[in-house]
Amino acid sequence: MNEPKIFIGPMSKNIVDAVIEYTNSNNQPIGLIPSRRQVESTGGYVNNWTTKEFCEYVRSKTSNVLLVRDHSGPWQGDIEDDGIDSFREDCKEGMFDIIHVDVWKQYKSFYDGLEYTIKFITDGYRLNPNMCYEIGTEESIRPTTPEELDYLLHCLQSRLASEVFAKIKYVVIQSGTALKGNKNTGEFNQDRLIEMIYVVKKYKLISKEHNGDYLTNDLVKSKFINGLDSINIAPEFGQIETTVILVNIKANKPELLEDFYQLCLASNRWVKWVSSDFKPEDNKEEIINISGHYVFSDPKFIELKNKLNCESLDTQIKVYITKRIEELIESTNGK
Q1: Are residues 78 and 105 in the same domain?
Q2: What are the CA-CA distances from residue 122 to residues 90, 104, 117, 161 (Å)?
């Protein structure tokens, strides 16, 4: 399989199925990047899949999808655990192809983060010497500079055995992306992008940017023209599905809008995406757009969705998801 240029968050079964159908039809590699909240050894909010169930489902339908655990590490799940049990499950044969080791949410100091990154990768190599890794983190967790990234890679190359360092494939770079609500609020810094890509290439690794959601096609194209290898997009696809559902509710069963809002409100999944002075009751549709995908597997939402009596709804959703995938593929190819 060629290295994918786009990596998509599996915010729902529809998104997973759309990715599988697209890759099979176009022989185009794409990565799926479930977080620990989405898919976990004990189950997650996406289709209630366990890690094993999710990986088996995707692998049974395609060989064109690279499975990458996004943000494996401490404090990355629904509870503030050390992340070790989840990591060990992810390392088993037949699970993920790549694990993103991200210890930086708990360990903000450079040297603590370095030590725990080494520990996770070393333990992972012992558990499964075939597993590959992505390292680094995004700006919202811990900002870094090109110089610090260079030193991190230098330390990893010096401290890890050569055969273990060779299992690092992807490096997270930062060029000014940030998400708030359903917008990308970051300020793109092209010089920083180029400098970070230079550092990654110096070690013959693959650059990957996170939080590539809600960017214009021209900006995505510009990043790749300047040397970016790959990009993560997640909430944007959940928001696409939510929008299609909202349109159908308004057209066919407007009385269900309040029920959808109440489900989203009760989930509390929207809280981290809004400012402290945000008033949910004045922004009901925004609450739904931000957090609708978190409740897709809730039995109450499934009941609500069935009340729409729209047999083609999932097909409509996948059409819009596929259209966005096509746009992104074209942009990463410089078109």
Answers
A1: yes
A2: 14, 17, 8, 9
* Rounded distance between C-alpha atoms, residue 93 and residue 173, angstroms: 28
The residue segments making up the domain with residue 109 are: 6-235+320-332
Is the backbone of residue 237 left (phi > 0), alpha (psi -120 to 50) or beta?
alpha
Structural domain tally of the chain? 2
Q: What angle do CA 190, 192, 193 make, to 5 degrees?
A: 60
Tens-digit pLDDT string for the chain (335 aa): 789 999 999 999 999 999 999 999 999 999 999 999 999 999 999 999 999 999 999 999 999 999 999 999 999 999 899 999 999 999 999 999 999 999 999 999 999 999 999 999 999 999 999 999 999 999 999 999 999 999 999 999 999 999 999 999 999 999 998 887 778 888 899 999 999 999 999 999 999 999 999 999 999 999 999 999 999 999 999 999 999 999 999 999 999 999 999 999 999 999 988 888 899 999 999 999 999 999 999 999 999 999 998 889 999 999 999 999 999 999 999 77
In a domain, 1, yes or no: no
CA-to-CA dists, residue 229 to 7, 215, 240, angstroms: 11, 16, 25
Q: What is the reported pTM? A: 0.95
Other C-beta atoms closer than 10 Å to the C-beta of 306 total: 10
Residues 101 and 165 grouped into a single domain: yes
